Amino acid sequence: MINSISYYVKEALVSFKRNGVMSIAAISTVAISLFFIGFFVILAMIFNTKFGHLETEANVSVYLKETVTTDQTTGLQKTILSMKEVESAKYISKGEALKRFKTRMKDSPGLLDALSGNPLPASFEVKFKEEFRTPDSVDKLRDRLKNKEEVDEIIGQEVVKRLFAIASVARWIFVTVIGLLCFAAITLIVNAIRLAIYARRKEIEIMRLVGASNWFIRWPFIIEGMTSGLIGAFTATLLLLIANSQLFQRVENIVPFLSFSVNQTNFVYIVLSLFIVGMLIGAIGSGLALRKFLRI
Amino acid sequence: MIKMRGVSKIYPGNHIALDEINVDIEKGEFVFLVGPSGTGKSTFVKLILKEIEPTKGKIYVAGRELSGLGRSKVPYLRRNIGCVFQDFKLLPNKTSFENVAFALEVIGKPRYIIRSQVSEVLKLVGLAKKQDRYPHELSGGEQQRVSIARAFVNHPPLLLADEPTGNIDPATSMGLMKLFNRINRLGTTVVVATHDKEMVDSMRKRVIALETGRIVRDQARGVYGH
């Protein structure tokens, strides 16, 4: 048993050295695909922590006209609350709005001095129930309030909506690119294993002749493929570490309010999954090559 | 040991290699399979090794019907069949000893058994002193002895040889035949496919003659031809 395992590993390594260029091509492609996967996953995580709350908290503001009366206000609140999608509708008076604005702008006092009186309108801050936090609900709310003359404007989800539209397009492009890269990686591994099989065809012929079991013949090639995948994953991890320290953290230093880093636990998870994906790519590649070029 | 019933092999392009072969080879026999090149001798050998499947008919090796043998079981069939070929099929980067040992290594034999069995079989074929030579340092006859040693090292009940003397001069060939005979006397069934007339005539063993895929003669203590 131990003998066999050391034999498989030895054969895999020898073959690795023999087909250097092909192996390096395969490993680099695995590394690049995995790096992109990791990079985009990190970007997606940052995106989610930065903008995710916009979706989950999704407050829509219903701005009221200056001329609105208290009766109209309570009536309007009832109407909004009667929708099954709505969880709460908080009234923000003109005074409240000004107070909030002041806290938000306290770093630019000049701007506040230019303000005369209170130009800010009163509003309702509408919060949807969890299962209804979608652009659809905003459209429904808009529909319901469209004939109310006391409503001035409904502002909310537009930005978020656009952001998520962009994100979903980006996600598709990303999935396609990663898919193509993985395909290329698998193809290159198939080729590397094919060369390895070719280089050892005489040995394999004799092995079959004297009755070596099929798995005994296959293992070295599977180990070779998976090793390519693992080295690829390792390289991708190094690249990601560099990207993390050189890019994300540097951006964070320049633009401090955008905290642009991933926490360590998540990073470990990403790396672990890269290793698993790398090994899978290697296993699939060698499996395909064995099926195609080693009919046993 | 080998039984064929109505075995035909037709290669793509309607090339008939074997046509309705019925044959029985008993345990312990020494059989020559003769006939001009292209009469199906190699096909016969390949069928027994289950390297190829017959188009028709049933083949039994040691009582086992081959078509019912799954792909993963084929290696275990081959462990019971030693094989010798015209081109020796030795690994150039391994010594005689290593070439023979390789056959045992890949079927997972422990090292101490390999060491004693390989030495013993190299002695049997008369190459004990050349066990550390590489194939290119040996003559053709010696290389074939190494390959015979490899085929026999596991003491298989059946030994197949396909044109074993095809690349070897007549004097050396006789030596190899004596070796096959010795192996046969140790209890192994030996089947030699050949078109080496002189050798067949001098051995006076059972001769099965093939011609265009059919058995035209099956003779105990026979000769190559008329």
Folded structure, characterized:
The complex is a heterodimer of chains A (296) and B (226). Chain A is of the alpha+beta class and 296 residues long. Chain A has helices spanning 2-18, 20-57, 70-82, 94-104, 109-113, 135-145, 158-199, 201-209, 214-254, 264-293; strands at 59-64, 86-92, 123-128, 151-155. A four-stranded antiparallel β-sheet of chain A has the order 2-3-1-4. The mean pLDDT of chain A is 80. Chain B is α/β, with parallel strands linked by helices and 226 residues long. Chain B is 32% helix and 27% strand. In chain B, the strands form two sheets. In chain B, strands 6-7-8-3-9-10 form a six-stranded mixed β-sheet, sandwiched between helices. In chain B, strand 4 (56-61) and strand 5 (64-65) form a beta hairpin. The radius of gyration of chain B is 17 Å and the shape is globular. The model of chain B has no long low-confidence stretch (mean pLDDT 92). Chain A binds chain B through residues 3-4, 7, 202-203, 205-214, 216, 296, and chain B through 49, 71-72, 75-80, 83, 89, 91, 102-103, 105-108, 110-111, 150, 154.
Average pLDDT of chain A:
80
Shape verdict of chain A: elongated
The helix content of chain A is over 70%
Beta-strand percentage range of chain A = 5-15%
**Strands ordered across the widest β-sheet of chain B:** 6-7-8-3-9-10
In short:
The complex is a heterodimer of chains A (296) and B (226). With 296 residues, chain A is an alpha+beta fold. Helices cover 73% and strands 8% of the residues of chain A.
Secondary structure layout:
The complex is a heterodimer of chains A (296) and B (226).
Chain A: H1 2-18, H2 20-57, E1 59-64, H3 70-82, E2 86-92, H4 94-104, H5 109-113, E3 123-128, H6 135-145, E4 151-155, H7 158-199, H8 201-209, H9 214-254, H10 264-293
Antiparallel strand pairs in A: 1-3, 1-4, 2-3
Chain B: E1 2-11, E2 15-25, E3 30-34, H1 41-48, E4 56-61, E5 64-65, H2 74-78, E6 81-85, H3 96-105, H4 111-124, H5 140-152, E7 158-162, H6 170-185, E8 189-194, H7 197-203, E9 206-211, E10 214-219
Parallel strand pairs in B: 3-8, 3-9, 6-7, 7-8
Antiparallel strand pairs in B: 1-2, 1-4, 4-5, 9-10
